[in-house]
Design goal:
This protein is an alpha+beta fold. Helix content is 28%, strand content 23%. It contains three helices and five strands, in the order E-H-E-E-H-E-H-E.
């Protein structure tokens, strides 16, 4: 039995590309049965920039991931597991689409 209960994809943006991020998140919510979080204009938790979270079940990884790769439009995305261990999920169980960014892991 897998310890992975789902995934989060965090779409990062700055003021100049917030519209692209909002468009991507909205399109993902229309295409897939996932939860679209709100647009955080400032860093929240471990995330270094503004972000929007997509939360989805493990069974969707094989369709959501390729779609994000093809549609990210130059945005940086952190995708990580949900296992109950936030530190592990954001470090060893995470991967990046685009440039890797430093996370604030102190609170995890």
């Amino acid at each position: 039995m897998s310890t992975i209960h789902g995934y989060h994809a965090h779409i990062y943006f700055d003021n100049n590309d917030a519209d692209k991020a909002e468009t991507l998140c909205k399109a993902a919510g229309e295409k897939f049965p996932l939860r679209v979080g709100r647009m955080h204009l400032q860093p929240v938790g471990p995330h270094p920039r503004g972000s929007c979270q997509l939360a989805f079940k493990s069974a969707l990884l094989g369709t959501v991931l390729p779609w994000l790769i093809e549609n990210r439009n130059g945005l940086t995305i952190l995708l990580h597991t949900l296992t109950g261990d936030d530190y592990l999920d954001h470090t060893d169980n995470a991967f990046w689409l685009g440039k890797t960014e430093a996370l604030n892991l102190k609170g995890l």
